[in-house]
Amino acid sequence: MAAAVAGAVLVAGACSQPNAEDQAAPPETTVTTAAPDITTTTAEQAEPEPAPETTTTTAAPATSTEPAEPEAAPEAPEPAMPELPERSGWSIQIGTEDADTTYGVSAAPGGDLVVAAATQGSLAGDNQGQRDVYLARYTPSGELRWSIQTGGPMNDSPLGVSVAPDGSIYVGGFTDGDFASSNQGSADVWLARFDADGNELWRRQFGGPAWDRGFDVTAFDGGAYITGYTASTLDPETDLGGFDGFAARYDAEGNQQWIRHIGTDATDWGQGSALAPDGGLYMTGYTEGALSGSHAGDKDVFAVRINVDGSLAWATQLGTAALDWTQGVGAGPEGGMLIAGSTEGALAAAHAGERDMLVVSLDASGNEHWRWQAGTEGMDTAFEVRQTGEFIVVTGTTAGSLAGAGAALGERDAVLVWLDLAGNLVEMEQFGTGAVDDATGVDVSADGSVVWSGYTYGSFEDAGAGGADLLFGRLELGS
């Protein structure tokens, strides 16, 4: 990242063992910006709490004797925290005089980066109306291979992108128009496939008379899943009324193999997804009902695993009496599931402020490993999460000094959080300008390098073009 290191300070964060909304819209105002900067904090392993004292009772012999003092249990060795290696890489800022935002980035074969974005300007061709789809591919050194822009007269927003093992690029989102076929009413879901050179192979659109929105895309060998939320009836057999989450599976030729609702008779929104070890799907979202167990209050986080045939393997739910929501999913240690989101309660630690970042680790059967929570007095959000080697990397945003006192650079700063596989904080990076900066997407290349995306209202790498500009980059860990 092309930014100067401002210093190192300690940040509060917590990880706990388990107990028995939509994307944040950037403000429309233009903010005076400051020079880019970055603050990094490294956290040392917390001292483990001492084991509770126990009292041992033994049967006394006929003659009175003093019982022997029990030997003190040996202290458990403190687990070693892996040391995060030095990172090197690059970041790019591009945009138009209108709003350009991204929530999707994917690592491609050979270390390339593929970014999908919504543009209201002419970023790679003439704007066709409202938000167009922008898709670009960059080399590992940051050179542009190709970029395209496509859209119709209405809003056609991409929210998810994923590269399949054969190099195919799957992109999905929602449209207010006839992007691939006739609009069924309000917003429809769309999914498209491109080859490695950016040529479109097919495009599909589906929905009902109400509001339907594609949110995330997960490619596999031979096709892709798309997840989101719907107020329509996309599958009568699994529809439960009101807003439900949904997941759909498509093959490489664009045929829908199945679609199903995930939810309750209350409001449920499906969001992020990741590939499960057997080729099925991990999916997350939030619910106002009781999808699995009881409803804690307001919105609860849910996580599900869906089999390759579309049947539900398991569902789990957790939350507080306040708002708890999630949107990012990644494959975790030993084939498990990682979830990134936010909480307005004390889900893993004491609530710090308006909204805290949240990361949860589950095993492949849906059992919790740990939860991690950290925040400031302001709004803190985790968007996406991935594992790379011994570390977990999380993208997010903060309206406070998440990396320690004096770390805040502007109205909202981008954040990269590094955890170890046990959920302990290793390092926190806060970077941005004097304006609004969000880090939204993240993915990991085959060599462990991290690609990330977001947007800025300031001048991080270059002078801001106007409104929000795209911001994305690549980080190599060590040599």
Could you characterize what this model shows?
- The chain has no helices and 31 strands.
- Mean pLDDT is 87; it is low at 1-12, 17-36 and 42-67.
- The chain starts with a strand and ends with a strand.
- The strands form seven sheets. A six-stranded mixed β-sheet has the order 1-3-28-27-26-25, with no helix packed on it. The chain has a five-stranded antiparallel β-sheet with strand order 2-24-23-22-21, with no helix packed on it. It has a four-stranded antiparallel β-sheet with strand order 4-31-30-29, with no helix packed on it.
- A hairpin with a 2-residue loop joins strand 13 (212-220) and strand 14.
- It is 0% helix and 47% strand.
- By secondary structure, the protein is mostly beta strands.
Distance from first to last alpha carbon: 16 Å
In this structure, how is the largest beta sheet organized? Answer: 6 strands, mixed
Average pLDDT, all residues: 87
Low-confidence stretches: 1-12, 17-36, 42-67
Helix content: under 10%
Radius of gyration: 23 Å
Number of helices: 0
Can you list the strand order of the major beta sheet? 1-3-28-27-26-25
Class inferred from helices and paired strands: mainly beta
